[in-house]
Specification:
By secondary structure, the chain is mostly beta strands. The protein has one domain (about 1-300): Beta Barrel (Porin). The protein has one helix at about 1-15; strands at about 25-40, 40-45, 50, 55-70, 75-85, 95-105, 110-125, 125-140, 145-160, 165-180, 185-200, 205-220, 225-240, 250-265, 270-280, 290-300. The strands form two sheets. It has a 14-stranded antiparallel β-barrel with strand order 1-4-5-6-7-8-9-10-11-12-13-14-15-16. A hairpin with a 3-residue loop joins strand 8 (about 125-140) and strand 9 (about 145-160). The longest helix has 16 residues, at about 1-15. The radius of gyration is 20 Å and the shape is globular. The two termini are about 35 Å apart.
Length: about 300
């Protein structure tokens, strides 16, 4: 079924890109540029860690089309490119491209949909990861203020030079949102159960992931502002004996972040982001604390 989704999502892309000429569609383009300071350099997917700080140049381009076919059928598609280049540690430079499509239908009681994401990642200028993410979801809005969404995900990872890490993951996700303050604020909670099976057993793991978000939009200095507080936590239990520590690997991670968006007008905003991560692991290199601070200018058209 997931292979059937690829041409479906390709159709979604072509339809959504035509939304600019369609009275029922919207097409947006966004550009971000800024700086990011990291106290700990990490590429989690391949356990590449460096206990040093550095500053990176951040660049991001986005293009998205949203096409409403009638009152119930919706198609969304787009492309996202993100580049992060460090001053002193080019081995951690990342370039990530993501092509995605989403098709949904709003029934009377529930919205059903499917999506597909195709991701290509480069590390230090060389391709290192191809990933596909296919989802099937159902969502429902209650009393115009409470929204619940359940999703089944299939994720495939292929590493260009580290085939032992090639993996397939099955994920069950549940998210709930409560909107208030006339829709200007919301609280969200989410949880996931993930089972990832890699080519080599000790890279396989079972994980539980939890997240929470508080978002509030308000006026200050005669400008629109948005403040977001996020919390993420996961626990991973790896299978087999990890060679470097001669026992099964166990990871937990707590992450707290604060994001402030200051909108100068409908098109231009300044994003300030602060994130603190506490990673605990019996693999010494994955046991660390990290602080990330970023300042980004965003233009959306």
């Amino acid at each position: 079924m997931k292979y059937f989704l690829i041409p479906v999502c390709a159709l979604a892309v072509s339809q959504a890109l035509s939304a600019a000429q369609n009275s029922d569609g919207e097409f947006t383009v966004a550009v971000e540029a800024g700086l990011e300071s990291d106290s700990q350099l990490t590429v989690e997917e391949i356990d590449q860690y460096e206990a040093t700080s550095d500053i990176a140049r951040h660049l991001q381009l986005e293009a998205e089309g949203d096409w409403q076919a009638g009152s119930n059928f919706n198609i969304k598609a787009g492309y996202n490119y993100m580049s992060k280049s460090y001053q002193d540690n080019p081995d951690f430079d990342l370039d990530i491209g993501r092509l995605y499509g989403d098709v949904s239908y709003d029934f009377t009681e529930v919205t059903l949909g499917t999506n597909h994401h195709s991701i290509d990642a480069k590390l230090a200028g060389d391709s290192f990861l191809d990933m596909s993410r296919t989802g099937f979801y159902a969502g429902r809005l209650f009393a115009n203020s409470f929204y619940v969404r359940a999703e089944l995900l299939d994720i495939e990872k292929t590493f260009n030079t580290l085939s032992d890490r090639d993996a397939n993951a099955d994920v069950i996700a549940l998210d709930a949102y409560y909107f208030f303050n006339q829709g200007l604020s919301f609280i969200a909670f989410g949880l996931e159960n993930e089972e990832e099976t890699a080519q080599v057993n000790y890279y396989s793991y079972d994980a539980d992931n939890y997240r929470a978000t508080y978002s509030n939009e308000f006026n200050w200095l005669s400008k629109r502002n948005q403040l977001k507080l996020n919390w993420r936590y996961y626990q991973r239990d790896y299978q087999g004996i990890y060679p470097d520590i001669e026992e099964s690997r166990e990871d937990t991670r707590n992450s707290f972040s604060l994001t402030w968006d200051l909108f100068f007008n409908d098109s231009l905003s300044l994003i300030t982001h602060l994130e603190q991560t506490y990673s605990e692991s019996n693999l010494p290199s994955a046991d660390y604390d990290a602080t990330q601070i970023s300042l980004i200018l965003r233009a959306e058209f």
